[in-house]
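[User]
Um, tokens okay?
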Amino acid sequence: MIERYSRPQMKKIWSDKNKFDQWLKVEIAACEVWAELGDIPREDIVKIRKASYNLNRIAEFLKVTHHDMTAFLNSMAESLGEESRFIHLGLTSSDVMDTALGLQLTQAADILAKDVAELIPVLENKAVEHKYTIMMGRTHGVHAEPTTFGLKMALWIEEMKRNAQRLAEARKNISVGKISGAVGTYATVPPQVEKIACARLGLAPAPISSQIVQRDRHAQFLTTLAIIASSLEKFATEIRGLQRTEVREVEEPFEEGQTGSSAMPHKRNPELCERICGLARLIRGHALTSLENIALWHERDISHSSTERIILPDSCLAIDYMLSIFTSIMKGLKVYPENMRRNIELTQGLIFSQRVLLALINKGLTREEAYKMVQDNAMEAWRGKKSFLALLLMDKRITHYLTKDELKSLFDYSYYLKYVDTVFKRLGLTKAKQGKRAGKAGSTKLAPRAV
């Protein structure tokens, strides 16, 4: 397990003690149903309900049996008398292990759902605070047209809501048990035992199983975690890009006394975001392994077992940790609106090229004609670092169609913000929720550079 990234609640779920606790629950639940069917004497089930195990004895038995289920059953039998003969009645190892695994995965999914639910309102607060904080939108890493930091946050909110839905669906499909015997035919344990025992455990019985619960369920769960991890990597990568010295529009928290480099005291690195990106790769690798676990020989083999002892706990531990630190990053994220405004003006108005293009088209030019005229001036602005507006005003091809005032009116940043409210309302980020925080970041209008 990735002990470094363990949080107490998730670590407890994947502890040996909790695993064996779930095994014990499954064994006792099956015995209780057998007793109700008349196959175990009532006085014996009273004793079986008090059965226990000893971790040290399991370890000792395991050295001899080389089989963790028989080692567990031997330890459990030591806590009982003759009634121990009824333990594991008609069951195979996977009846207990897979059903217990369903319990563990359900417990883990509940923690992760809580993690996601804690992140979303943090993102909502940032979206509302920076609803009108205008910044440069970039495609291919190059300036495109203005957007707002609030819209960027709103995009992340919707993605995390989809992740919450995916996780809920994955939880549903993994919250199953199977108590159907050696190859799933119920020959040694009737369907009633499975149905009633699973209900008591809070699981749905698998409608059909072989010797195991089918691994497409586990693959869905792990690929869901991989998608969540990839979303977090996407967000963290954006923060990393915006934290570059030349950009410095946002910055992850940097605590008092923290150091970014052993050699360079000035360094403030996005190391938390980088950590998220690295762990996302790990979880995607585990997801691939889970997909390879779907195909097993005939009714089962054991090739999936060794990998699941790593990929299931490690993925849950890692994504729990990633969600926790990303929530912390977003709570303490430093946003620099003044740098955003400075960066918008780096290209001296080139970002308004589409507005000029559309204005010329509206004057009757073909798209090709208008595009050529605007691009000629845009390329000159790139080469000479001249004001785009100044170049347009000197181009008689342009001024033949657009007056000086018409051209200047196109260089208005507020044009790009006219539907921000519409998007926020669509996402349920209403004025009531926004309260007094909306618009906090300052003016939506920026004057173009002087001509």
